[in-house]
Amino acid sequence: MEAKLFEQDGVTILQVTGEINISTSPDLRKVFEKNAGKKLVVDLAKVNYIDSSGLATLVEMLKKMKSQGGSLGLAGMSEKVKSLFEITKLDKLFLVYNTQAEAVSRAK
Amino acid sequence: MSLVQKFSADVLSFLGPLKLDGGIVFDVKLCLEEALINAMKYGHKLQKELKVRLGVEYNEREVRISIEDQGEGFDPGKLVCCTESANLLKSRGRGVHLIRQLMDEVYYNKKGNAILMVKRLKREAGNRS
After folding, report:
1. What is the CATH number of domain A2-107?
2. What would the mean pLDDT of B69-93 be, rounded to a whole number?
3. A56/B91 touch (CB, cutoff 8 Å), yes or no
4. What are the helix (H) ranges across chain B?
């Protein structure tokens, strides 16, 4: 997994590539924790796999973001990754956008 | 836990002759890894000396994966439903839920330390795969 962080229009964008699994989730959590309280968009367009520990990490970070006055939007999920959010009903919990641009526009 | 990814890669390689489509590979990989993690993390409480037994068989109609740990077992019927509103923010319970949703058949033994997962490979009436 690789995570690239950059800013656009006052919104922090975290672009993740690869697998979010039980081995890579701790690294992702560290990146999140450094950016808690910000307006954050996580671009998942290049994520080809996510397991329950990855989903749990995103839920934990959503809670932390909200408690520290930030926001967390998810963008660009593949149909398969999106289906996991639907199966677990996490699509009701997160702000989910089709594209990074849409997520940034709504987060501003 | 990188062992989980290694076993998963080995199993997917073993299933290579089936030329599975990407969606089925995703489901098999996810359910296999979730079940292995449950066995090692919750069944064995991460005790490295304990062994997990993994069995995989396939034919042109289905893939069958069995995983057994040496732990005390659990009652899958007592797991909280992770999709209920009150539980959405909780960290645990999604792995078993994903397995139940993505596999076509899921069985536990009476002790609750062994799981059999069946993934069908062809669409049939009333089949989710």
Report:
1. 3.30.750.24
2. 91
3. yes
4. 2-14, 22-37, 94-102
